[in-house]
Amino acid sequence: MPIIDPEVKKKISSDSDSKDRQPPMYKVILHNDDYTTMDFVVEILIKVFGKSFEIATQIMLNVHEQGRGICGIYTRDVAETKVNTVHALARAREFPLKSTIEKE
Questions:
Q1: In a 3-state reduction of DSSP, which class is residue 52?
Q2: Which one of 20, 40, 52, 90 is most buried, counting C-beta atoms within 10 A?
Q3: Per-residue pLDDT tens for 20-69?
Q4: What is the DSSP letter of 24?
Q5: Radius of gyration of the chain measured on its C-alpha atoms
Q6: Alpha-carbon gap, residue 76 to 97, rounded angstroms
Q7: What is the Cβ-side half-sphere exposure of residue 70, based on CA atoms within 13 angstroms?
Q8: Residues 100, 30: Cα–Cα separation, whole Å
Q9: Residue pair 87/40 in contact by the 8 Å Cβ criterion
Q10: Looking at the domain assignment, is residue 99 inside a domain?
């Protein structure tokens, strides 16, 4: 029976542990402003985040009443892409809608 060096065994164990870890997740957040229409926010939530009309309306009301609302939780690349998409669509319609990401 072969003898395994404890340091090698520890290294192999820690390597396999790192492969099992999930990537960090990020919340995409919409922020309230005085100019962006509620209809546009609902449209963004449906088109960009794939929400149903009912859920989009609920999130829009959170944005309106609480100043911000969570649109979804994604990996960093996906979250950044969604933020960029929101900003591009808002710019095209001349709205100052702000979206950010926050580590979960």
A1: coil
A2: 90
A3: 789 999 999 999 999 999 999 999 999 999 999 999 999 999 999 999 99
A4: P
A5: 21
A6: 20
A7: 8
A8: 7
A9: no
A10: yes
Domain with 61, as residue range(s), is 36-104
Tokens of 9: 């065994």
The sign of the CA dihedral 12, 14, 20, 26 is negative
Q: Domain total for the chain?
A: 1
8, part of any domain = no
Among 46, 82, 42, smallest CA distance to 62 is for: 42
> What is the residue whose two structure tokens read 């979960």?
104
CA distances to 4, 20, 37, 63 from 34, in Å: 66, 44, 8, 11
- Residue 25: CA atoms inside 13 Å, Cβ hemisphere, count? 7
Tell me the pTM: 0.80
- Assigned token pair, 29: 């957040």
Give the integer Cα–Cα distance in Å for 17 and 2.
24
CB 72 within 8 A of CB 28: yes
CATH number, residue 70: 3.30.1390.10
Backbone angles phi, psi at 102, to 5 degrees: -145, 130
